Amino acid sequence: MTKLISRLVVIIFWIIILCIFTSCEKELIPVPPEMDYQFKMTGRTYQDSNNYYHLTLDPDSLKQTLHRFGAYITNVDQFNLPSKVIWRSDSFWYLPDTLGHTYIEIGNVPTGEHPWSWENFAVTGYEGMTVPIVNGTSYADPIVDSAFCMMAPIGAMIGDTITIYGQAWFEEGDIILEDSFQIIFN
């Protein structure tokens, strides 16, 4: 009887081993193709023969001039993730004390006049805060191979030449390409 049980155990052992080895498949992990990533910045304004871009600013010393610049970029990486661009500039400006003005509607004023009135309040307390002239981050458009960013220099910067830097991140930062351009504020 013990001989029979030991033979059954050996037979069951070999059946299990055969089942394991015959049911295993080698799972093939797809290797993504190598990609040729592109990143080339453009100022999207007039460019002179020395490769400097030119942007005309509003002459009011504290008024911002909005301008959109960008880059040609591979929009998705090999994992189909959107490409990220980090922008920075070597220039910034400081806020004066008054950021702007706001109007607040005040109701039921007991002055005998109109029951509603508007009050003008200055938004203060921001003196000395640093304002970068470019937004910090953007992502590539999923349809076209482009990424864009806004800049907002002020009139006090007329005559300045600045450099704008860009870093394109692919594959969650494993591959980083860099570019820059210079722009003269007229």
Structure description:
This protein is mainly beta. It is built from one helix and twelve strands, in the order H-E-E-E-E-E-E-E-E-E-E-E-E. The strands form four sheets. It has a five-stranded mixed β-sheet, with no helix packed on it. The N and C termini lie far apart (103 Å). The mean pLDDT is 85.
> What is the domain total for the residues?
2
End-to-end CA span: 103 Å
**Total count of strands:** 12
Order of helices and strands: HEEEEEEEEEEEE
Proportion of helical residues: 10-25%
CATH class division of the largest domain? Mainly Beta
What is the number of helices?
1
Looking at the structure, the CATH topology of the largest domain is Immunoglobulin-like
Structural class: mainly beta
Strand content: 35-45%
Can you list the strand order of the major beta sheet? Answer: 2-12-11-4-9
Largest sheet: 5 strands, mixed
Within CATH, the superfamily of the largest domain carries the name Immunoglobulins
- Ranges with pLDDT <50 over ≥5 residues? none
Give the overall pLDDT as a whole number.
85
Which terms summarize this structure?
12 strands; 2 domains; five-stranded mixed beta sheet; 186 residues; mainly beta
